[in-house]
Amino acid sequence: MTILVTGAAGFIGMHVAEALLADGRRVVGVDNLNPYYDVTLKEARLARLLLYKNFTFYNCDIADRPALFAALGGHPQISLIVHLAAQAGVRHSLNRPFDYTHANITGFLCILEAARQMANLKHLVYASSSSVYGANSQLPYSVASMTDSPVSLYAATKKANELMAYSYSHLYDIPMTGLRFFTVYGPWGRPDMAYWRFTEKILRREALEIYNHGDMQRDFTYIDDVVKGVLAVLASPPEKKGEAAAHRVYNIGNNRAEKLLDLVAIIEKTLGVTAERRLLPMQPGDIRATFADIKAIRRDIGFEPSTRLADGLPKFVNWYRSYIKG
């Protein structure tokens, strides 16, 4: 069995690929190592994967259809896809909107077109985002909640991905599952995320910029729980029922909303440093709170996150300190 993992040098992508490789699966990884954040971090993640003999990597932009098809053409045995490659970041989408249509719309379309030509494909799992809930203020977010009011272009592209996936699943009978990730954190994480930036700034004795005057909550989900969820979903493709496509969407979160200021306090305690805080207004495109209702994925897949923020965050902080020391 061969599994395609896009965004293999990304945070979630590396962890998912490594879990599959350690389990003896053949993995084809695709990533273009774009400079949205420090490329050396992506290269370090990739170096871990390249230690496995059952890993094949292509430095390829998923929106470059000829290059993508050429790379995947040599792997007709691909039977599963975990599509995680995307342009991430809400605030970045305010300044670089075309990065999002390129990677998240054109790139996803290229993946869907590649998928429909794979004779052995059994299931395509793709990354959506909790951002699709946008202006919806009803917490916790249920997969049945409204997702028609995105407050950022990033969120709009992720909602578009869900619609595109449904149409391709309907047209070509490809089982697909979208995963709405809720603020994933942990070792090898992303430098643009608050938990990374706060850790970095506290160690540098720099003031923390905290938006909405600290009145923010996030459903922080530890990477090990996310990987277990992704692999369990991957092994359980949806079935076509009547006229409905074999397509479903799940929340994948920790099922609890944590205060942002509590996250800061845990980092301070782990580092033994008290941070200076600059409380600022809400930023455009941001939302005050996220909170995942995971009833559906718990019922269908048995997903049960087990890592509390107070336990998972120190693991990231300790990893970060060892990483920056080289």
Total number of helical segments? Answer: 11
The biggest sheet amounts to: 7 strands, parallel
* CATH fold-type name: Rossmann fold
Residue fraction in strands = 15-25%
Q: How much helicity do the residues have?
A: 40-55%
Low-confidence stretches: none
How do the strands line up in the largest sheet? 3-2-1-4-5-6-11
H/E element sequence: EHEHEHEHHEHEEHEEEHEEHEHH
From the spread of the alpha carbons, the general shape counts as: globular
Kindly give the count of domains: 1
- Give the full name of the CATH homologous superfamily: NAD(P)-binding Rossmann-like Domain
- Rounded to the nearest angstrom, the distance between the terminal CA atoms is 36 Å
Which structural class matches the secondary elements?
alpha/beta
CATH class: Alpha Beta
- Rg (CA only): 19 Å
In short:
The protein has 326 residues and is of the alpha/beta class. It is 40% helix and 17% strand.
Q: Would you give an account of this structure?
A:
The protein is an alpha/beta fold. The protein contains eleven helices and 13 strands. The chain has a single domain, classed as NAD(P)-binding Rossmann-like Domain (Rossmann fold), CATH 3.40.50. The strands form four sheets. It has a seven-stranded parallel beta sheet, with helices on both faces. It has a two-stranded parallel sheet with strand order 7-10. Helix 1 packs across helix 8 and helix 7 packs parallel to helix 9. The longest helix has 20 residues. The chain is globular.
